Amino acid sequence: MIRRYQKGYYQAIADSQTVPIDCRPFIEYTLNIIEQSLQDILKNGGLNGGLNGGLNLLQQEIISLILDNPYIKTFDIAQKLKRPVRTIENNLRILREKAIIGRQGSKKSGRWIVNQSL
Q1: What is the pTM assigned to this prediction?
Q2: Which stretch, 38-52, 65-79, 104-118, has highest mean pLDDT?
Q3: Nearest to 72 by CA among 98, 55, 90, 92
Q4: Are 113 and 102 within 8 A, CB to CB?
Q5: What are phi and psi of 45, to 5 degrees?
Q6: What contacts 118, CB < 8 A, 6 or more positions away?
Q7: 24 exposed, middle or buried (CB, 10 Å; 0-12, 13-18, 19+)?
Q8: Taking burial as the number of CB atoms within 10 A of a residue's CB, which of 11, 22, 88, 96 is the most buried?
Q9: What's the rounded mean pLDDT across residues 36-58?
Q10: pLDDT tens for residues 76-111?
Q11: How many CB atoms lie within 10 A of CB 68?
Q12: Taking the CA of residue 80 as centre, how many other CA atoms within 13 Å lie in the half-sphere pointing to its CB?
């Protein structure tokens, strides 16, 4: 989760270390991340829905990368998430089967499309 919001995380730490030291920026940041995480869980059908029919964390991170760059390659996703290419391919296949994402164009020059009704 921290990787997803890395810039804000480091900014909150920096803001908390100004003189006089005040930990409120970091606490507020952390509480906001917890709130967003809980909203994501609820959006994906709760804990049970997340395990049985929702998206796992890796799939959410893949979608986030695709939203940032629809032309991203499978290899680049694997590198950014520090996972094997085969793992990313399997999760992309699952996301496609669930109609969460689609592909437009060729493997080499095409782009990913995220179902906007999610």
Answers
A1: 0.55
A2: 65-79
A3: 92
A4: yes
A5: 90, 20
A6: 100
A7: exposed
A8: 88
A9: 67
A10: 999 999 999 999 999 999 999 989 999 999 888 999
A11: 9
A12: 18
